[in-house]
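Lay summary. Proteins are chains of building blocks that fold into shapes, and those shapes determine what they do. In this project we predict the shape from the chain. Here is one chain we studied, written as its sequence of building blocks.
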Amino acid sequence: MLPEYNSQRPLIILKEYGRNIQKIVEHIRTIDDKDKRTELSYTLIELIKQLNPTVRESVENPQRLWDDLFIIADFNLDVNNPFNPPEKDILSKKPMLVPYPQSDVRFKHYGKNIERLVKEALKKEDPQDREDAVIYLGKLMKTFYGSWNKEILDDSVILKDIQLMSGGKLSMNLEKVREDNLFEKLYRERKKPHPQGGHSNQRQGGGGGGGGRPFKKRFNPHRRRDQ
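And here is the predicted shape, written in a compact code that computers can read:
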């Protein structure tokens, strides 16, 4: 008996199920009794679940397996399908184009979300809330900038950028920011071991961030005024 090579066999329609599943489908199609074809189709669906753990454990619509069964059968399978069989032209349909968000980010080193937070901060009417928002924005901007750049971003640059993004409506005294180190990074770097043993007592990034209420409570874009 001459060996049978894959190049001489029919193409596998859905490779994730393999050639043996395809052969079983072809066999089911040759059975004359519709009830028997339906019974074997249900059995085959359960077999596919056992052979493909990812399919068994997925929470997708169970109709997918029956659709795949019809695709393997070239849409020529007369059984009592629990679902409506798929249309044959489904394989030739082109996927819908997903529009790419076309939004210009003025300060790409901060990211788009910073501009959104600035818009939320502008909704604050209380002067203290606006100041807290500026402090929180400054911390975020210094943190985001430091994630991609080794040099330290000066507080004056951060304040200037906040003013530009807010149309000059958000501002703060630069001397106060520097004196209280209000724009300290949110995430501190790990302390490096001291050359003579032990750890350095110097804190990365300076002082404690201005005291008062914790900054997480100071500015929350989604916090209601009556909370």
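What the prediction tells us: The chain has two domains: 12-91, 112-218.
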